[in-house]
Amino acid sequence: MVLGGFIIAGNAIGEDYNEHEGGSIFRRRLDVAPVANEAYKKECGSCHFAYQPELLPARSWRKIMDTLDNHFGDNAELASEDQKAITGYLVATAAENSRYKASVKMLSSISPDDTPVAISKTPYFVRKHRKVPVPMVAGNPLVKSFAHCARCHTNAAKGSYNEHEVNIPGYGRYED
Amino acid sequence: MNIARSIVLASLLAISVPAVARAGAVDELMAGYKAAGGADFSAGKGQAMWNAPSATVSKSGTPMSCSVCHTGDLRKGGRHLETGEPIEPMAPSATPKRLTDKKFIEKWFKRNCKEVYSRECTVQEKGDFLAFIGGK
What is the rounded CA–CA span in Å between residue A113 and residue B83? Predict the structure, then answer.
């Protein structure tokens, strides 16, 4: 009964970053919330992984949404009502408004003078991935770039980036 | 017996609903294009333009065309040129949801014409494209 109580308490989502879970079988904590906005998933998630808004500051999302005609080299323009609605969602759910430790760590790694548009180029992300060999990502036709989170992070869509869940296509499980 | 009949009915519905939606979406768009000056929409012209290289060149130096990402065979799946992301076949015979949603169609015309031709497509060109895709 008491153990059950601890398990339930431990499952309080977003309370702790699960970096060093070390194989705990009782608790699964999320790094960020799974995306719950259907318009964002449909419009943005149809071409690439639907990055959780908690992973960037609000100003980054505004910049991305203001420059959809040149979205990483593509034209991703939306009908204006969709652009407004999705921007609203992203800004409201951005890192500054998130309780997740991944958001805090992400934000503290970004200089206030910077407005990064690529999650994979933020200092926090680069630090977390610096030991991953190039042949496994850029040199791997099944992955190609760090922008494709879900190709290796098997539970990315659920909001979990736990390294124990990583399975690199063509290579298998990976842990630092 | 009732179960078998329900399955047959459900299958017929699944096939016919996209077809009905598609007829509606394409008819409405083409009516709009005609009102704006388009005429005699031609699958042949649509196909020719689909495959013709544009003056616009990709990041990697490839002259752009619709077929660069979507392939020239609409029944085949395509790939995004830079990311490699798969694109479902354009042919409604292969992908039933194709040409059923006017907003979706116009959204992609705007994006892709700007990427391929560095301009929006004319109503004539859009009508020709719809005639081409709709027949596949």
Answer: 30
Say what the pLDDT of residue A3 is: 52
pLDDT at residue A8, as a whole number: 45
Mutation to test the B interface, candidates A75, A83, A144, A145, most B Cβ within 10 Å: A75
**Which residues numbered 27-66 in A keep a CB inside 8 Å of some CB on B?**
47-48
Q: What DSSP assignment string belongs to B17-61?
A: HHHHHHHHHHHHHHHHHHHTT--S--HHHHHHHHHSPPS-B-TTS
Tell me the mean pLDDT per 10 residues along chain B, length 136.
Answer: 82 77 89 97 98 94 96 96 90 96 96 97 98 96
Domains and CATH numbers, chain B: 2-134 (1.10.760.10)
Per-window interface: A 125-144 vs B, CB < 8 A: 141, 144
- Could you tell me the residue ranges of all domains in chain A? 30-168
ipTM of the complex: 0.80
